[in-house]
Amino acid sequence: MRVFALSDVHVDYDENARWVSGLSTSDYRDDLLVLAGDLTDRLSLLETSLRAFAARFRRVLFLPGNHELWVVRDGRDGDSFAKFEAVRRVAAQCGVETGPLREGAIVIRPLQGWYDGSFGTPSATLRTMWTDYRACRWPDGFDDARIAARFDALNDADEDFAADAPVRISCSHFLPRADLLPGFVPDSVRMLLPVLGASRIDARLRRWGASLHVYGHSHLNRDVRLDGVRYVNSAFGYPGETRISARALKCIHGDAG
Ligand SMILES: [Fe+2]
Ligand SMILES: [Fe+2]
Question: What residues does each domain of the chain span?
Fold first, then answer.
């Protein structure tokens, strides 16, 4: 049994959707998949894609990214917290897990979150250009910090989940550390840092004792050890991101891990 990591498949792009439907239906039957968010904001397409993954892997763990919480395009009445619940219901209908899972010695724990200002304060320019500020809808009075606190509180219930397991893998859509953004990225990308992650995610995974953390969102292929924890980003990314994204399933544990 192997564990694979993948994020940011963005199946709204036909090319990406074709890659999913072209995945082998026999190679991954014994394997687990960690799917770290940003498949699509459209629930119908989300369902199609999650069913495709569920049909290929023994177990799939999915956690929503920021794109799943966009409500504007599908004309939904509810807010993005309601969309979060709707996304998790769709996953359950597809046989995809959204809570922590245990498989023998391996435990995989999702950490819900949102950017909270801990990586910096978004500039006026960033607030104008970043689609979440237009495409998500939150209850009155909810700013980034309050949104992040509400998602973070969802993790309390799993704080002690299988903390005795030999292999503890955590995952989040957002970056748990600002230094996961590589030094080579240009200022035009670095200015996104305030909306990329939250350091409370790192505090969570370290308190729990994860040795490996899978994250998405940045679309930057990464496999690095920092202060004793291995961090992996295996994003599929947008079609044009051929140089920065992994654009492949990455085995993070097992035969080739
Ligand atoms: Fe993404
Ligand atoms: Fe994202």
Answer: 3-253
